Amino acid sequence: MPPTRPLTVVITGASSGIGLATALAFARAQARVVLRARGEAPLARAAAACRELGARALAVPGDVTQPAAMHRLAERAAEFGDGGIDVWVNNAGVGAVGLFDETPVAAHEQVVRINLLGYLHGAHAVLPFFKAARKGVLVNIVSLGAWAPSPYGVSYTASKFGLRGFSEALRAELVDYPQIRICDIFPATADTPGMRHSANYTGKALRSAAAAGRGGRGRSCRAARGGRANLAGGDGRGRGKAGARCQPAGAGPAAAGIRPYPASAFQRRARDTGH
Predict the structure, then answer these.
(1) How far apart are the first and last CA of the chain?
(2) Catalytic residue among 156, 177, 201, 261
(3) Alpha-carbon distance 191 to 171, whole Å?
(4) For the chain, which ranges sit under pLDDT 70?
(5) Which whole-number Å values give the CA distances from 96 to 78, 129, 145, 148, 159, in the listed order?
(6) pLDDT in tens, 110-153
């Protein structure tokens, strides 16, 4: 049955990519959307775009790696939604691209902190509201990288494999709450800003698999079980995802349609414009 009142939906990583598209889709359905991202200006623009579609929207800047902040987000969302939360979309994520041992441990830690622990914090914050209502939908935007490993994205792969296990275990734990749904989404390639904002230790500029494909560069692509195509991995808040497992002919990132990049430009390290 269609809802008898507007849904209250929380979306992390809502300022760009898949997160922003999700927010706009719910706004078109007149849901009350609560948006979380770290960048205040892009988050405000996302909320304004939702309001232009006739929806109520609340922008709550903050960091998904801070558990107390995520609980406060849930509390604000419940107040905004007349006491409850109907849907929570975990979507924020990052990537760190490069040879594993040449990428600083701090960058690997940040990837796991955001991609895995950020989702755990979101679930931990919203589940009390779902259990009180005995219903709710938790959506985890994962990646096809949760099924196939990504060379040059080892910590990304670890976070996504871990996230898939997290969802499966939580789903089993909630067997006594049949109306609380844990939904995993494994997007294929998305041409989003993710490549530009991944921590890049390759010495080259990165492009998403989708963008590189439009450039017509030759690659050998093979379908794989939930394969991954790009080297950075990602989640769409701007992390480009991959559907078919597309590796460039020949090994290594240099063959993947990656352009030379000035040394000064890739001093940027793991950060997520999507949350």
Answers:
(1) 33
(2) 156
(3) 30
(4) 1-3, 189, 194-197, 208-275
(5) 34, 34, 14, 17, 11
(6) 999 999 999 999 999 999 999 999 999 999 999 999 999 999 99
Q: Which tens digit of pLDDT belongs to each residue from 260-270?
A: 323 333 233 33
C-alpha 211/C-alpha 217 separation (Å) is 10
Distances (CA, A) of 184 to 77, 90, 136: 22, 10, 14
pTM of the model: 0.76
Q: Indicate where the chain has its CATH 3.40.50.720 domain(s).
A: 8-185
Beta bridge partners of 66: none
Q: Would residue 156 show up in a list of annotated catalytic residues for this protein?
A: yes
The domain 8-185 having CATH identifier 3.40.50.20: the answer here is: no
Q: What gap in Å lies between CA 267 and CA 148, rounded to an integer?
A: 28
Vertex 161 angle, CA 214 and 134, to 5°:
105
List beta partners, residue 140: 90, 184
Count CB-CB contacts under 10 A for residue 99: 13
